[in-house]
Amino acid sequence: MSEERFTIGPERYAQVARFALWTLALIVLTGAAVRVTGSGLGCPTWPKCTETSLYTELNTHGVIEFGNRVLTSVVGFAAIAAFAGALRRRPYRKDLVVLGATLPLGVVAQIILGGFTVRYDLAPGFVMSHYLLSMLILIGAVALDWRARREPDEPPVTSDRLVGWGMRVLLALGAVTIFAGTAATAAGPHAGGAGTGDEIKRLDFKGSETLNFVISQHSRLAAALGVLAVVLWVLARRHGASAPQRSTLAAVCVLLAVQGVIGGLQYELELPAEMVWVHVALAAGTWVAILRAVAAAGRPEEKAAPAPDGSEAATA
């Protein structure tokens, strides 16, 4: 009887998984705010905030950085809840337990990587890795959220072969585009130390031309990503895709269009901090939208095998 008291049903667990997803997305927004406000070294040591205290001094940049660290504990709690809830969910599902375990492990990895980022004075490679790790954790969070709302005995989701494989290309291209975006930020003026007067090394593998080079590559990749998303949306409509498949792709198209406008404006306005923050934050939202679209697409339909009389058999 006491054991049953600590179990959780499928609907409640789906809520826990959704909460974990949104907290993991929220920490990306606050982390970007730390950087563009120049507060990356507001807590100049790790794991303490200062040499003598776990807490911040009473200044704006210290509060911003310390607040982001405090929020990490909330994210950690949500990640642990997602894993523990999967263990106690009834009926028990191993796939949810495995996916749930990736979230607290990812948060621990982020805490450790964040420590190295501070200790090495916001070196570009560490800052880029910090953001990219967040994108990896979001893969597990989106997969957990998606699976938690579907039972294993439901028919597998499939999509038209062209759309299904195109979605996989969209995922890969989206990942490369985000990587290029982190490089652009690492070469840009918002190093994370302006507010505290710290001089931070920038990405400069092409000297003074590095920023223009990486922005150019990022914009080309983003344009290709946007075109591919629109093409897949059109194909999905023409080939009778389900409502979730069409709506998730539509969300990707809208977010990419917004990102294109913001990206162009911030370049013309010489990268104001506020617009850079919006651009970086929306990148996380766009990544989540792409992951959800890929999940909604499911597996590409199997190719129809030719029947003995030479005609094509129905697709399995």
Number of helices: 9
Q: What does the largest sheet look like?
A: 2 strands, parallel
| Average pLDDT level | 89
Q: Please report which band the strand proportion falls in: under 5%, 5-15%, 15-25%, 25-35%, 35-45% or over 45%.
A: under 5%
Q: What are the segments in which pLDDT stays under 50 over at least 5 consecutive residues? A: 312-316
Please compute the radius of gyration using only Cα atoms: 22 Å
Total domain count: 2
Distance separating the two termini = 46 Å
- Which structural class do you get from the secondary structure elements? mainly alpha
**Largest sheet, spatial ordering of strands:** 1-2
Describe it.
With 316 residues, the protein is mainly alpha-helical. The protein has 2 domains: 153 residues; 151 residues, no CATH class. It has a two-stranded parallel ribbon with strand order 1-2. Helix 2 packs antiparallel against helix 3 and helix 7 packs antiparallel against helix 8. The chain is flat. It starts with a helix and ends in a 16-residue tail after the last strand.
